[in-house]
Amino acid sequence: MPRADAGAGVGLRRAGRLCALTVAWNTTVGGAAVLTALAAGSLSLIGFGINAVVDSLASAVLVWRFRAELRGHAERAHQAELLALRLAAGAFLVIAVYLLVQGVRSLSLGRDFKSTAFGIAEAAASLLVLPVLASAKFSLSERLASRALRADSLLTWSGVGLAALAFAALIAQSLFGWWWADPLGAFAIAALLAWQGVRALR
């Protein structure tokens, strides 16, 4: 089968690199965030960490998808596109349900959590890196007509929102003792993720 032409090849290679960078960043920072969140009991931080790990899975599939298209394997690329799209959509919905359930539990139990400097640093670093990756992937998704890359970029954008939420909640807890900011913010993010998940499935 014919390989992608030179113009499309540049875009495909760039998309593959962006997805690979997303995998590297989210696997490292997301995994660390989950461990930190389990120790601190922060709902928003664990939501951010889980989102990052799932985003890594979707991005890893897209790396395979773009390499397959570059090599002229259109059918494999199409299958990987659908798989990545379904992974992203499923991730949106699963994380939304998780945040909703845990937020209700946190409010009903009045559960407090500990603010950690490391958690604040993780969230702050992600606020610097993830918007760049999300914007670049979204722009390329339009150019390559890839719904899966668009959904993945939105998954990365949701990571930005969750990082902002985690950062704000950790700061609010550290400075003012506002433990309830954590679950309330999680509800807002859950609503956004559920909406994006339904859109991706359609």
What is the terminal-to-terminal distance? 30 Å
* Total number of distinct structural domains: 1
Mean pLDDT: 80
Category from helices, strands and their pairing:
mainly alpha
* Low-pLDDT segments: none
* Overall body shape: elongated
CATH homology superfamily name: Cation efflux protein transmembrane domain
Total E-strand runs: 0
Order of SSEs: HHHHHH
Percent of residues in β-strands: under 5%
| CATH class (first level) name | Mainly Alpha
Percentage of residues in helical conformation: over 70%
Largest sheet: none
| Number of helices in the DSSP assignment | 6
Descriptive account of the structure:
The chain has 202 residues and is mainly α. The chain has a single domain, classed as Alpha-lytic protease prodomain-like (Up-down Bundle), CATH 1.20.1510. It is built from 6 helices and no strands. The chain has helices spanning 6-40, 43-70, 74-109, 117-144, 147-176, 181-201. The longest helix has 36 residues, at 74-109. It is elongated, with a radius of gyration of 18 Å.
Outline the secondary-structure elements.
Layout: H1 6-40, H2 43-70, H3 74-109, H4 117-144, H5 147-176, H6 181-201
Briefly summarize what is shown:
With 202 residues, this protein is mainly alpha-helical.
List its traits.
202 residues, mainly alpha, Alpha-lytic protease prodomain-like, 6 helices, 0% strand, elongated
